[in-house]
Amino acid sequence: MKTICLYFQVHQPFRFRRYRFFDIGNDHYYYDDYSNESILLKIAEKCYLPTNKILLDIINANKGKFKVAFSLSGVAIKQFQLYAPEVIESFQTLAKTGQVEFLAETYCHSLVALKNKPEFERQVKMHGDVIKELFNQEPKVFRNTELIYSDEMGEMVYKMGYKAMLTEGAKHVLGWKSPNYLYCNSINPKLKVLLKNFVLSDDIAFRFGNQGWSEHPLTPQKYTQWLKDLDPKAEVVNLFMDYETFGEHQWEETGIFKFLKELPEEILKHPEFSFSTPSEVADNLQPVSAVNVPYPISWADEERDLTAWLGNEMQEEAFNKLYALLPKIEKCKDAKLQDDWIYMQASDHFYYMCTKYFSDGDVHAYFNPYESPYQAFINYMNVLSDFTLRLNAAVPENSQDETISNLTSILEDKEAKIAELEASVKKLRAKKKKKKSL
Fold first, then answer.
1. Do residues 17 and 378 lie in contact, with contact meaning Cβ atoms separated by under 8 Å?
2. Residue 70 to residues 74, 143, 196, 276, 356: CA-CA distances in angstroms?
3. Active site includes 152?
4. Are 342 and 75 in contact (CB under 8 A)?
5. 183: phi then psi, degrees, rounded to nearest 5
6. Domain ranges of the chain
7. Considering only CA atoms, which of 343, 351, 350 is closest in space to residue 79?
8. Interior CA angle at 186 toward 6 and 302, to 5°?
9. pLDDT tens digits for 142-161?
10. What is the mean pLDDT of residues 77-93?
11. Which helix H or strand E contains 291, and what residues bound it?
């Protein structure tokens, strides 16, 4: 019997506004509220709400036979709370069915696992607390940002209490092996590793609406036949993709919703298939061998490496300068600075700086709100410069920094007082003018 493991990533970053050089030190608000709200509401309407409704109907129709897993980044959840609380409610309805598993990840969809273990653990705990609060689940399976994984990361994740981890079934890692089995971590075999079948996943996520594709149109019957044609010994087919595949990347006009509605029923017509959550796969199957991943892999681009985020000097400089602030962040008690620190770590900011314009150029251009990677870099570094000034003021290193911090605080208090007095004067003038008119 083969089991199908469906997993969807849900993430939206807090996008920065155009932050100019002359804003540094003068304006400490970095976010493009209009874009963040309008984009989230659009995707909620086109993807999250209708797709959640479809999945709920499928779950109810199949009485425990259909299951699915999600990872929702903390920054996406925060935006749902701000702009579209009905999306959270729809995920909560799914959670109550008992057929949906929510996975662990870093709260801010960050690359921190590559840089600092204590900060990584803090962000994962922060995310786990939110999942517990909203969906009454304590995640047992971990999915790192963009499925980034290595042997060392896997060992670290196991020590944090997780039994399994998801990653990419990359060709250069698997060689002749198939992704359609359960594997384990090469350092600590107790951690189970689920590998994405990228061919069958990408047939839906990337190729579905491509009319130039030789297999277009893709029907549930054709897709189910592909599953049947797999090696009879295969035990699990891990279909991992962005949730925005449904309705956003693949528009409703392509027939993607009809495909999703009909696919589970078509698969379940065949008794050799079932659906499982990642936890069930980890519990019910035995690893066939260890998977050796000495260097980090991801699910991005043809290379399945980290070059989408850390492939050029701009990305490296921004990344290193950001995490050089960690010692001060650990001492910082300012809530606003801590929030900005979280939002600045989203991997999207580094993705926007990518200069890969060959095999995967179209993908990077589609998701990039900036006119060029260089503009993305300049904008980010301007934000980071202002953030650094604020952090230095909040956590002074020496007496000179402390003096500057105190003076800055005094000036801010005076400006606030002036603004308050100006508002009072304005009200008094308005009252006086009103009396004269009477």
1. no
2. 13, 10, 14, 13, 29
3. no
4. yes
5. -120, 180
6. 2-291, 312-394, 399-438
7. 343
8. 55
9. 999 999 999 999 999 999 99
10. 98
11. strand 290-291
Nearest 5°: CA angle at 169, between 303 and 3?
155
pLDDT tens-digit series, residues 287-312 = 999 999 999 999 988 889 999 999 99
Cα angle for residues 250, 252, 258 (degrees, 5° grid): 100
Counting Cα atoms < 13 Å in the Cβ hemisphere of 134 gives 28
d(Cα 361, Cα 34) in Å, to the nearest integer? 27
Range 373-411 burial, b when 16+ CB lie within 10 A, else e: beebbbbbbbbbbbbbebbbbbbbeeeeeeeebeebeee
Answer CATH for 2-291 from 3.20.110.20, 3.40.1440.60, 3.40.50.150, 3.40.50.11260: 3.20.110.20
Q: Which two tokens stand for residue 369?
A: 């709100």
Residue type, 98: G
Distance, CA of 18 to CA of 1 (rounded, Å):
53
pLDDT computed for residue 361 by the predictor: 43
Work out whether strand 192-196 and strand 182-185 pair parallel, antiparallel, or are unpaired: antiparallel
Phi, psi of 329 (to 5 degrees): -60, -40
Confidence label for 178 from pLDDT (cuts 50, 70 and 90):
very high
Helix (H) or strand (E) holding 389: helix 373-394
Residue spans of beta strands (DSSP E) within 276-381: 290-291
CA distance 288 to 134: 36
Q: Which two tokens stand for residue 358?
A: 């060959």
Which residue among the candidates 146, 244, 266, 280 is catalytic per the annotation? Answer: 146
Amino acid, res. 1: M
Question: For residue 41, what are its two tokens?
Answer: 């509401």
User: Cα 430 vs. chain centroid, distance in angstroms?
Assistant: 50
Q: Write the CB contacts of 222 (distance below 8 Å, at least 6 apart in sequence).
A: 215
Contacts for 299 with CB less than 8 Å, ≥ 6 apart: 146, 147, 167, 168, 196, 198, 240
Residues 286 and 182: their CA atoms lie apart, in Å, by 7
pTM of the model: 0.89
pLDDT at 364: 45
Q: Which residue has the tokens 């609380």?
A: 85
Please tell me the distance from the alpha carbon of residue 139 to that of residue 278, in angstroms, as a whole number: 11
Report d(CA 436, CA 434) in Å as an integer.
Answer: 6
Query: Range with the lowest mean pLDDT among 24-33, 41-50, 302-311, 397-406?
Result: 397-406
Q: Say if residues 129 and 77 touch (Cβ distance below 8 Å).
A: no
